[in-house]
Amino acid sequence: MVELFKQNTAVETAPLQQETVLFHPGLNRFCILNRTSAFIWNRLSTPASAEQLATDLSASFDEVTTEGAFEDVQQALAEFVALDLVCSVSDSAA
Description:
Elements: E1 3-7, E2 12-16, E3 19-24, E4 29-33, H1 35-43, E5 48-49, H2 50-60, H3 66-82, E6 86-90
Antiparallel strand pairs: 1-5, 1-6, 2-3, 3-4
């Protein structure tokens, strides 16, 4: 089974110049995302796998290889999950 991830719907989002600001009201925590993390966050408005995210990331950023994108996605997802910004969903529930 492929692991899919999606945004935690409780988290609020606001653009800030080249970055994105997230606010988790349940934890009273702000997070500022750089351009790459913001791309991943925005893509997670619908469930996606790490592989799908890496493919989309490398297609959208000329300087990013698929392998490099996959590493970036895995790191971002681990941080997002640890901060309760995204959650894992099964592919049958998506």
